Amino acid sequence: MPVFDTRAVQQRLSALSGRGNEPLGHFDATTLGVGRYVAGSSPWERHGNGDELLLVLDGEVAIEVLDGPGSETIALKEGALFVVPRDRWHQLTARDPVLILYASPSEDGVERTRERPGGARA
Predict the structure, then answer these.
(1) Which of 13, 39, 98, 99 is least surrounded by CB atoms within 10 angstroms?
(2) pLDDT digits (tens, 9 = 90+) for 57-105
(3) CA neighbours within 13 Å on the CB side: how many for 34?
(4) Has residue 88 been placed in a domain?
(5) How many domains, in total, are found in the chain?
(6) Which residues neighbour 78 within 8 Å (Cβ) at sequence distance 6 or greater?
(7) Structure pTM?
(8) Which residue intervals of the chain are DSSP H helices?
(9) Alpha carbons 56 and 99: distance in angstroms, whole number
(10) In sequence order, what are the residues at sequence separation of 6 or more whose Cβ sits closer than 8 angstroms to the Cβ of residue 56?
């Protein structure tokens, strides 16, 4: 049974100049890992096969979650834990690099797009 030194993972990812990702393993039907996101916006994504857990380890990020024709944007600071409900389109936007521990459903249920999904207002 592996034990992960998440501080060492954070240090490795923080030393990068760009985006990085380090998978840690699996928990039930989810993939656990730490991701480093740089300034800018991620692709839009949604998981049709489960919720996604995000824990901000370092930095700050805004997450926009689409809900039917509307949306909600939430600021997540270091220490914030957020669960993206199943089947909700969401996008992360950061001004500076941010480290996030994630628990994401398997890739077979994910959709991604660079364009804002249709039917939602900005």
Answers:
(1) 39
(2) 999 999 999 988 889 999 999 999 999 999 999 999 999 999 999 999 9
(3) 18
(4) yes
(5) 1
(6) 56, 57, 58, 59, 60
(7) 0.90
(8) 6-14
(9) 6
(10) 76, 77, 78, 79, 80, 81, 98, 99, 100
